[in-house]
Design a protein that fits this description.
The complex is a heterodimer. By secondary structure, chain A is an alpha/beta fold. Chain A folds into two domains: 282 residues, Rossmann fold (3-Layer(aba) Sandwich), CATH 3.40.50; 70 residues. Helix content of chain A is 44%, strand content 15%. In chain A, strands 4-2-5-1-6-7-10 form a seven-stranded parallel sheet, with helices on both faces. By secondary structure, chain B is α/β, with parallel strands linked by helices. Chain B has one domain: Cobalamin-binding domain (Rossmann fold, 3-Layer(aba) Sandwich), CATH 3.40.50. In chain B, strand 3, helix 3 and strand 4 form a beta-alpha-beta unit. In chain B, 45% of the residues are buried. The chains are: A alpha/beta, B alpha/beta. Chains A and B meet through helix 2, strand 3, strand 4 and helix 11 of A and helix 1, strand 2 and helix 2 of B.
């Protein structure tokens, strides 16, 4: 056990891979492993990437990893794919896109399946991130399909979350409202060389403005976005995707607080803005063409900006604090559930209770009370 | 340890690898699906991979099973290279290596010698392959 950790800390890829397997499988003793890892963590910068299927997440992650490597940084990637709830089987296909980092062991790419269990993936992801962090990876990317609560929990393990949106009709952007929009620190319109990218950018900015209406009302946010939703650029501007996060559409610019008039508060790209309550972050909308790596540099700079913002404002610490609190709560939930599961078995198993409930001899609430009773007794709580 | 009540959730992980220059991946796709439906976690490498890439994937993904599909006839060169790479990372011992494709009878002993556990040629059934994997995937 200790040996495996030593090998991991020593930089052996095999040991890292094996530790992640144990974490995924919840093998006996995995808790001890993660316990040991903890003190070696805290140095990596964790980025979450999410978005609908086909948005180009894996391709973008591949290019991100390649760019980080050019900067001399080491990279860990965890790509999570859904698994069949019926057989538990899965085809984990994200690796196919990792073509730019072939033969480079300093990009450690690991596919994980969402093994069905509620909350289980979040725990496994959090722990796998710890393993990569302890191993010494500078940048860790967590990639997942943005579909449900589970996925949202997963990307929350990240300091910065980027949401990918393919250019298309407004319908997809509308769909983003359901939960995904709130978690994005940066929005990426990938495949920006396709028709409709500008329109998607405008729509996103409009939605971000609405989302941020409460804290930054009248101070930051995008003004005028969407007034020209069709926002055509001339053909000569066809290469906007390469121009970092800049959106040349003047109708979609951000205006800072008119009263303050600080120069740094006005930006047409999103990012940090001054508000009455201090510095706030307006999620920038970045355009990329992941296939050709266009715009990826700019995207990474935006991620760094966000990281700087978090550090500068103390939000990084607050986020970390919150994350550990959530982690402890989640572990407690899982542990008590397991305890209760055992108690349930000891009291005759779920099926017996269900039959009694169906026969109207008892009811679900009474059953729950009965099963929890020993726990209550332990805590000295009287009925 | 009293907190350790969660049952272990072990899934068999497989890398289905297309190595070398042949572009025939129907077989690899079929087996990937069959493995998935058998409840395995399957990582598919994609076409035209070099032995290095396969080794990198097998090590990082920590797979129980490495299934190599070769229809180009270059198995005598490619398979030993992969085995060598796995050994370099200490991943050879507990990885079950199987080969699918067109492998002449004469070449088979050498491949087995190199560390291939089983060879599935044309006519091998999916069930046979799945059963073999279930029975032979190493305990870790």
């Amino acid at each position: 056990m200790g040996e495996l950790i030593d090998d991991l800390l020593d930089g052996q890829h095999r040991a890292l891979a094996r530790v992640i397997t144990k974490i995924e499988n919840r093998s006996p003793g995995y808790r001890d492993l993660v316990r040991e890892l903890h003190q070696h963590t805290g140095d990596a910068d964790v980025v979450g990437i999410t978005g609908s299927p086909g948005a180009g997440k894996s391709t973008l992650v591949d290019k991100m990893a390649a760019t980080y490597r050019e900067r001399g940084l080491t990279v860990g990637v965890i790509a999570i794919d859904p698994s069949s709830p019926f057989t538990g089987g899965a085809v984990l296909g994200d690796r196919i896109r990792m073509a730019s980092n072939v033969g480079d062991m300093d990009v450690f790419f690991r596919s994980m399946s969402a093994r069905g269990q509620l909350g289980g993936v979040s725990t496994a992801t959090t722990d796998a991130v710890k393993a990569l962090d302890a191993f010494g990876k500078d940048k860790i990317i967590v990639e997942t399909v943005g579909a449900g609560q589970n996925e949202i929990d997963i990307v929350r393990t990240a300091d910065t979350v980027a949401v990918l949106v393919p250019p298309s009709s407004g319908d997809d952007v509308q769909m983003l409202k359901a939960g995904i929009l709130e978690i994005g620190d940066v929005f990426v319109v990938n495949k920006a060389d396709l028709d409709g990218a500008d329109r998607t950018v405008s729509e996103l900015k409009e939605m971000i403005m609405m989302r941020d209406a409460s804290p930054a009302a009248g101070t930051g946010g995008y003004h005028g976005a969407g007034t020209d939703a069709t926002g055509h650029h001339g053909p000569d501007e066809g290469g906007t995707a390469g121009s970092d996060s800049a959106d040349p559409d003047p109708s979609a610019e951000i205006t800072g607080p008119g009263s303050a008039g600080t120069p740094g508060s006005t930006t047409d790209q999103g990012g940090p803005v001054e508000t009455d309550e201090g510095e706030a972050w307006v999620p920038p909308v970045v355009q990329t063409v992941a296939n050709t790596a266009e715009g990826v540099e700019g995207f990474l700079e935006t991620l760094d900006d966000h990281r700087d913002f978090l550090e500068r404002t103390g939000q990084l610490e607050a986020k970390t604090h919150k994350r550990y609190a959530e982690e402890i709560r989640r572990l407690l939930r899982e542990d008590t559930r397991a305890l209760l599961e055992r108690e349930l078995e000891a009291q005759g198993g779920i099926d017996t209770f269900v039959e009694d409930v169906m026969a109207r001899e008892t009811d679900p609430y009474t059953v729950a009370d009965e099963v929890v009773q020993p726990l209550r007794d332990c805590l000295g709580e009287s009925e | 340890m009293s907190t350790e009540q969660e049952p272990e959730q072990r899934n068999i992980r497989c890398l289905v690898a297309k190595v070398g220059l042949d572009g025939h991946d129907r077989g690899a796709h079929v087996i990937a699906r069959a493995f998935r439906d058998a409840g395995f976690e399957v990582i598919y490498s994609g076409l035209h991979k070099a032995p290095d890439e396969i080794v990198q994937a097998a090590v990082q993904e920590d797979v129980d099973v490495l299934g190599i599909s070769i229809l180009s006839g270059a198995h005598n060169t490619l398979v030993p290279k992969i085995v060598e790479g796995l050994k370099e990372y200490g991943a050879f011992e507990d990885t079950l290596i199987i080969v699918g494709g067109i492998i002449p009878e004469d070449d088979r002993p050498a491949l087995r010698e190199a560390g291939v556990a089983e060879i599935f040629g044309p006519g091998a059934s999916m069930q046979e392959t799945i059963d073999f994997v279930r029975e032979n995937a190493h305990d870790r």
